[in-house]
Model the fold of this input.
Amino acid sequence: MKLAFQIALRFLTSNKSQAILITLGIAIGISVQIFIGSLIEGLQIDLLDTTIGNVSQVTITAGKRNEPLKDYKDIESFIIDEYDTVSGLSPTLTEGGFMLYDNNFDQMLYRGFELLSADKIYDFSNAILPGGSMPKENEVLMGAALANNNEVSIGDTITLITAERETIDVVVTGFIDLKVASLNELWVVGNLDIARKLFNYEENEVTAIEMQII
Done:
């Protein structure tokens, strides 16, 4: 090791210009490697945020298919108390049906949420197109493509219909662009109360609890 160091030192001191050039080359090479590493890491983070940043990463449902998840608030409390890695948590009541507006009849998927909680996952407030606003009681957001296909405008009243022909009238307060064509063509988003009235769920029932983790 000592011999190798002496040979390297003699080589570097024998030609100072060459030594400076070699040192500069090594420094540039290391800088490029650090830059490329940082760039790749940043692209990975951006890719994750783009692909799964605004969706549920963990979803809890009932043990049997098509059964509601009961006493969901107790489950929420347990998750919050036991897992500090959960960054967003929202109950949801999701059911398929149809929408009717001015003789236009189309398929839709109703997503009922506690909207303040769901906004931490889906970022609805920033997905609303200009002119729209977050919905309140008896109000909904519509996927931009669904609204466009059926010529719905902000402030219009649409009728939501179940397969059992239950109906409810709601006012559209805005359109959302969720960056996924299938969602924009199907989703109608509102609160849990609308879903409970329309699909006959009890106060303590939802279809799932959705989460994002740190």
About this structure: The helical segments are 2-14, 16-52, 72-82, 115-122, 124-127, 144-149, 181-184, 192-199.
